[in-house]
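Collaborator request, handled under Task 6.
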Amino acid sequence: MYKETQKIIFEILEGTEASGPNGRAVTFFMTVLIFLNIIAVALETVEPFHFQYAELFNIFEIFSIIIFTLEYVLRLWTCDLRADFNEHVKNRLRYAMTPMAVADLLSVLPFYLPIFLTLDLRTIKVLRLLRLFRIAKLGRYSAVFKMFKEIIREKKEELFLSAFLIFIALVISSSLMYFIEHEAQPEKFSSIPAAMWWGIVTLATIGYGDVYPITPLGKFFGAIVALFGIGMFALPAGIFASGFIEQVQKNSETHKICPHCGKDIDEKLR
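Structure tokens returned to the collaborator:
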């Protein structure tokens, strides 16, 4: 009975095919609850809403905490049914340190810390803002987030290489601009780290206009960096685009969709 109950809860939480409509209902409910929590965190920062609906926000927060805490406890309880974990305490602790388990913990931790610790008002406000970590829980329930995670996993080498190239370009451009503009604008280009703000804004082609070169050489070099940045920041975008296309093709090969009814052909045959 114990193992059967544990298996049923595990399948429902993981949304496996064996869980049937119960798993789909839980996935839908948790997805909606996470989105509502993100909306609530944003609306609480609007003073008229905060003062007028403070009690409603508190009730919703307590309800959410109960659900998220129960989910976290149940996932810890059923984690030994995963292929790479077992009932050993060390493996349960290892599961608790996985990224998604940490995200689950961070989604409820801001509520419990003020209960057990004496914290000042500013710290409490920061902790309440940390509730935005709940959006990371969508990685469990959203197919889009799962696809995004797969793209990062498969393209991590290319993404790391592009990030490394952007970092090198940032260091070189900021260093050269510092030596070009330091004498003309010592307050804005006071050091190479300070010049990196200009480098980031220029390479990303944002151009806030708060820091910019005024010398002829600085303007010429800034134009080159801006043009160079268009290509540099297009690299990770291209990598994500190719990864997305590959994932869509892989999913379409795995799930053949009937052009008439729109259902999975393999599922219809079963």
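The cover message to the collaborator said: "The chain has two domains: 2-141, 156-269. DSSP finds 13 helices and no strands in the chain. Please let us know whether this matches your experimental observations."
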